[in-house]
Amino acid sequence: xxxxxxxxxxxxxxxxxxxxxxxxxxxxxxxxxxxxxxxxxxxxxxxxxxxxxxxxxxxxxxxxxxxxxxxxxxxxxxxxxxxxxxxxxxxxxxxxxxxxxxxxxxxxxxxxxxxxxxxxxxxxxxxxxxxxxxxxxxxxxxxxxxxxxxxxxxxxxxxxxxx
Length: 163
Known about the structure:
This protein is α+β, with helices and mostly antiparallel strands. The protein has one helix at 19-73, and strands at 3-5, 11-13, 107-109, 112-118, 122-124, 128-140, 147-160. Strands 3, 4, 5, 6 and 7 form a 5-stranded antiparallel sheet that branches. A two-stranded antiparallel ribbon has the order 1-2.
């Protein structure tokens, strides 16, 4: 806008063209909104990933508890091995239990399946038994029920026998 002086020092504004100001403000607002949407989407994705990674860790910890219960009930002798690992619904020797189909899960619903596998237990000098549990959380497609993304977590555990 230009100011024009007309007589006796009175300054009166002359009409200007507002389109450049509106365009610049629109572009600035669009950049701010786009950045906000990107940050929101990134945060949402990160929180979802954290949720499923935590589900996999909890599944692995469930495997640890299953193995500990088996050791407690068998005088600290592991009856499972890599060819017959502990899984949800399996007996302490690693074989599928009674009312459980071949693929039992800890959680099976709402687009999520979680399971664990506990491999061979290793004895160290007769004092310590150690083993690993691999937890897996699978996201399922709502349309087909097939797995479209998997998250895994490995948790190790040792049991001291002379305590």
